[in-house]
Amino acid sequence: MFQLFPLDKISTYSRPFYRPFSGSQSAFLPAFLRVTVHLFTGLSPGHSQPFYRPFSGSQSTFLPAFLRMEIVHVYTKLRSEFGRQCLFSDRPAELLVDVSPDPNLALQFIQKTRRDQAMQASRDMSEHQVNTERFESESRGINHLEGGWPKDINPQEMEQTIRFRKKVEKDEVYINSVLQLGSIMEHCIRQNNAVDIYREYFEDEDEVEENQEPPSAKTINVFRDPNELKRTVTDLSWRPDGARKLAAAYSCLEFQKSCRGSSLDSYIWDIENPNKPELTLKPASPLVCLDYNPKDPHTLVGGSYNGQIVYWDTRRGGTPVEVSSVEQSHRDLVYKILWLQSKTGTDAFSASTDGQVLWWDVRRLSEPTDQLVLDPCREGNLDRAFGAVSLEFEPTMPTKFMVGTEQGLVVSCNRKAKTPAEKMVCTYEGHHGPVYALQRNPFFPKNFLTVGDWTARIWSEDIKESSIMWTRYQMSYLSNACWSPVRPSVFFTVKMDGTLDIWDILFKQNDPTLSLKVCDDPLYSLCLQDNGRLLACGSQGGGATLLEVCSGLSTLQKNDKSLLAAMFERETKREKILEARQREIRLKERSRSEQSREEEVGPEVGDDSPHQLITWTEKDFFSLVEAEQRRRSEREGRGQQEKDVCEEREEKNETTSAK
């Protein structure tokens, strides 16, 4: 307990006045109950002695009662009452503070202007897609050939198996199970017989409208080149029997880039396992193109960087079965190779930038069976031949094929022609660069698709002068294209900026229906599966991206064929009219030029001798020069007249202003 002694006067003194308990009163109060009281004497300004007296022992000296100030209250509670609950009671309200309003403060009140403010409590959401790093995994399986027999029964012994079957058939549990299942099966058979599954109940009803979902495509897998030095995926081919196998050719096609140290292998991938190729193809030179045999899914043929043709049978592994000799092969890299429609299913033909198209029998690749030189003069001169970069063959037209060249021309050929000159039927000119893709429409073979420079064009065999439809010029170079095998109006293109464009020309012709950024590397190759649902794109960075398109782009829609046929027919007629008009204009110009030449030369002129040709040329040249001089003099005279008129107007204006 502290005892405090206040005084009458307060001065500047700051020592605490307290006394601790002694003896049995030696307990101290808690820190928060300690009070420091400043007690001062007021006898004189310089007096600073504290007025206090500590207690000691049993002595007790107290001040008078009027000076004593008690600030300690002792609360006593029995030990037996510790821990009991508190009993509360109600009491009336009690006013503690009553503050009256101040009118002066009310005059200073300013009302705050109201405003509306909205807050978004939910978080902004966005959808992102990324290709994660490949996780290395391995698939393992066990094939159990024979089962259901006890360990003491040999399945290879016929007598033991028959004896065991008879024993099981006599078992009561087996008999009861068969009887129970027999009643269920009998009920299903009667139900099946009661319903005619071949009856048409809704013959007059209209067909259900197709699903109008927005066009979309999603990435399923990415097959990356397992080598450290990444190569371009130059070609892709799907296995034709519906199996989920994809063959990819890898090569380095960049200009003046050395391929030393890079792998020569190409791979066959299982699309369910992107971690490891199913089979490694080992050619002597990097593969630029390859193609599965449509009649035998175990065989495929490829074209090499050094011009050789390679043939594989996957049942024998990745080593080539046949390889063409270097002397009888192409002189440059083989850009395209395709299988031909034949009885044996062993014929193929290839195209190269050396200007040759060669036919092969893969059973004997020692020399080609036929040859065509793409000489525009039709003389078989290999030095003047067009370099071939794409091929097209339609099985329904076994004698016709088409070749896309480096010069932007498409050459239509007939294999069964008697002479090499007759094999080149006609040419189509419409691209400023190499024709990297060439394919006929699977539903309308007379119309074919080409890709070169910055556009994709659709042609008709009947129109030689120009294409009937084309896309607008893109910002990036187009490298490949193909038709959808399911929808006749849909085709796909890939570009050098890594973008895949899906076009539906019945929907719109100026812009693609769907544009998808596949990767950052340029895309070079493109291939669709026969069902039109799976699509593979090969890039320069060595990745083959597998995509799945939506059902709207991979399902035949109602009236697709009829609408596209009408569109092709309309565009073909329009181009024919324009072609006839251009032909008429050229004919008139030719006749007009011939008539003017006859008038200038006169009737006495005979054959066109060199001297006469020089005379005509000089006369035409000087006449053009004189006409140009006359035009310039007339222009100068007209300009001088205009200048004089302007000066006269200015003089008149000055005279008027002076007056």
From TrEMBL:
Record's InterPro entries?
Dynein_IC, WD40/YVTN_repeat-like_dom_sf, WD40_repeat_dom_sf, WD40_rpt
Q: Which SUPFAM superfamilies match?
A: WD40 repeat-like
Determine the domain of life of the protein's source.
Answer: Eukaryota
Which GO annotations describe the biological process of this protein? cilium movement; outer dynein arm assembly
* Matches recorded under SMART domains: WD40 (SM00320)
Basic and acidic residues bias spans = 124-143, 588-600
* GO MF term list: dynein heavy chain binding; dynein light chain binding
Q: For this UniProt record, give its keywords in alphabetical order, as a comma-separated list.
A: Cell projection, Cilium, Cytoplasm, Cytoskeleton, Dynein, Microtubule, Motor protein, Repeat, WD repeat
Q: Where in the cell is the protein located? A: Cytoplasm, Cytoskeleton, Cilium axoneme
Which Pfam families does the protein's record reference? WD40
Subcellular location, principal: cytoplasm
Q: Which family does it belong to?
A: Belongs to the dynein intermediate chain family.
Q: What is this protein called?
A: Dynein intermediate chain 2, axonemal isoform X1
* Organism, as annotated: Xyrichtys novacula
